[in-house]
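User: Please fill in residues for this 440-position structure.
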């Protein structure tokens, strides 16, 4: 049995469960007269999907996101006979977030053991491959249960999902279509004049995977990438392969250049050497060809400033090491020597999501960082940047008759395991930043 087939069927079953959860009206979510409440059935299905997709009970890693009265997703199976108070009820948003978390883990969990191995669970006396089939059937059973309840109560249904395919690389999952495995054509618009902006992924494949899934749900296929793609305390190859395949318009960042020059740069950082040491020549060549600036989709895109890769555009570093947002007049002065800028400017680098209109009407969009919510840096002097939460961030830009509309998006993902990976690789400072969004 092909592992990609197993992953595709897990994700199809999870997609149908998610659709049922998303379609549930408020009155059905926690209805008193239901012996098994809608939210509890969904949580039960997701808990066991998460558990049995793991290679063994001992290897199971609950998602340590505290919600309401619960110590964390995946801590309790909430099976038959388990009661809960109203304070313990998971919200619709909670369950959708857990569904996304499980979906993001599926490719890694499925590939963590051979299909012919033991299931890893005392109660499942068969092979790992059969355990996956058992698990998918269990997800679909409860998805069907919820879908039928929706039909009876709302006269509405949920579309059948035949397969959900990801790209061939084994890292971040790019969904190819919800019901037929059809890949949207590159450059196709689902909503005319609507695109996403990402920046500062920093090799964080878990965060990128969550953003890719969010883009797929929103049916956004056009994406501009503002650089700093791979530099970080992770195995960067899957992110590199995914970005090269996706072929998004991408500009170079300062850390992209650091990886290109690491061999000839005696003062290269430890992170740069760690990252570059895992990349192939094709990855370095791709980074080396990235332009410093693009004019695309009615926008001028660059990483930090139009004339450089290091100094911030939207942020001031104070003498005490704290940072503050630069004012609109200050930013306008920084741009005075740059010619040919569009009425909409896209930039990243400082990892702080922001929308700003300059005195002349130009709109600036900083999407924040996908993969690094906080950091310490020594240029122009020692300072820290903190978002205060560990979410993956990006922006959605849309052209409307009244002007540019921008949505700044923060996406939950498995930041605890991202932090653990960084720490295992010898970078505990990154572990702190990833887990909390804070340096101090």
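Assistant: Residues filled in for all 440 positions:
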């Amino acid at each position: 049995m092909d592992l990609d087939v197993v992953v595709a069927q897990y994700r199809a079953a999870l997609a149908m469960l998610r659709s049922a959860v998303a379609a549930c009206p408020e009155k059905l979510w926690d209805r008193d007269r239901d012996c098994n409440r809608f939210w509890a059935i969904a949580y039960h299905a997701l808990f066991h999907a998460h558990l049995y997709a793991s290679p063994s009970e001992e290897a199971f890693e609950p998602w340590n996101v505290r919600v309401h009265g619960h110590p964390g997703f995946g801590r309790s199976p909430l099976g038959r006979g388990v009661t809960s108070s109203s304070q313990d009820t998971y919200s619709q948003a909670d369950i959708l977030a857990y569904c996304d978390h499980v979906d993001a883990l599926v490719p890694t969990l499925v590939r963590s053991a051979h299909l012919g191995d033991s299931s890893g669970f005392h109660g499942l006396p068969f092979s790992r491959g059969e355990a996956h089939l058992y698990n998918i059937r269990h997800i679909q059973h409860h998805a069907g249960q919820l879908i039928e309840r929706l039909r009876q109560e709302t006269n509405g249904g949920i579309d059948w999902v035949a397969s959900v395919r990801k790209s061939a690389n084994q890292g971040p999952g790019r969904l190819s279509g919800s019901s037929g495995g059809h890949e949207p054509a590159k450059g196709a618009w689902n909503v005319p004049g609507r695109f996403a902006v990402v920046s500062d992924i920093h090799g964080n494949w878990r965060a990128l995977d969550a953003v890719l899934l969010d883009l797929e749900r929103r049916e956004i296929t056009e994406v501009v990438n503002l650089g700093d793609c791979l530099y970080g305390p992770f195995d960067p190859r899957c992110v590199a392969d995914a970005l090269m395949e996706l072929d998004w318009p991408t500009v170079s960042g300062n850390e992209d250049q650091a990886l290109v020059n690491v061999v000839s740069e005696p003062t290269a950082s430890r992170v740069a050497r760690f990252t570059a040491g895992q990349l192939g020549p094709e990855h370095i060549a791709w980074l080396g060809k990235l332009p410093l600036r693009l004019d695309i989709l009615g926008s001028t895109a660059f990483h930090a400033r139009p004339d450089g890769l290091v100094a911030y555009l939207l942020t001031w570093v104070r003498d005490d090491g704290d940072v503050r947002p630069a004012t609109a007049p200050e930013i306008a002065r920084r741009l005075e020597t740059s010619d040919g800028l569009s009425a909409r400017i896209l930039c990243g680098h400082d990892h702080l999501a922001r929308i700003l209109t300059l005195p002349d009407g130009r709109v600036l969009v900083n999407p924040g960082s996908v993969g690094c919510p906080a950091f310490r840096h020594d240029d122009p002097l020692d300072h820290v940047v903190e978002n205060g939460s560990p979410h993956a961030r990006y922006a959605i830009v849309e052209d409307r008759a009244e002007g540019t509309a921008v949505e700044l998006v923060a996406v939950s993902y498995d930041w605890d395991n991202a932090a653990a990976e960084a720490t295992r690789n010898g970078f505990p400072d990154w572990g702190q930043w990833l887990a909390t969004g804070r340096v101090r």
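For context: Confidence is low (pLDDT under 50) at residues 66-87, 167-190.
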